[in-house]
Specification:
mainly alpha; single chain
Length: 104
């Protein structure tokens, strides 16, 4: 359904669709990590795996960092945003190093 939503659909319907997609992504990542949903509460707010999930949600959905932080138990919106940005910066730095190798 998420691909079929257009301008004429209400914002609530689009948000519900984004939330459903996010829940599918979270379930997929939890299976990959062999975690239960309760592990999101038990692990540190700055757990690298939780931040990776948050970064994926930011890229693949239109949900706010506030929603993602609450769902993944990442603490405040500000700390979650800093953590997600650090994941993106790490990826960028890693990509830059790999590009340099191929240009030599």
């Amino acid at each position: 359904m998420e691909g079929a939503l257009g301008e004429h659909h209400a914002g609530d319907l689009k948000r519900e669709s984004a939330e459903a997609k996010a829940e599918r992504i979270i379930a997929e990542e939890l299976r990959r990590l062999r975690w239960a949903n309760t592990d999101l509460q038990l692990r540190l707010k700055s757990d690298p795996a939780k931040l990776q999930i948050a970064a994926r949600l930011r890229v693949e959905t239109t949900l706010t960092i506030k929603w993602i932080a609450a769902r993944l138990h990442l603490g405040t919106t500000k700390s979650a945003n800093v953590g997600v940005l650090s994941v993106f910066e790490t990826r960028d730095a890693k990509n830059q190093r790999n590009v340099g190798r191929y240009q030599e």
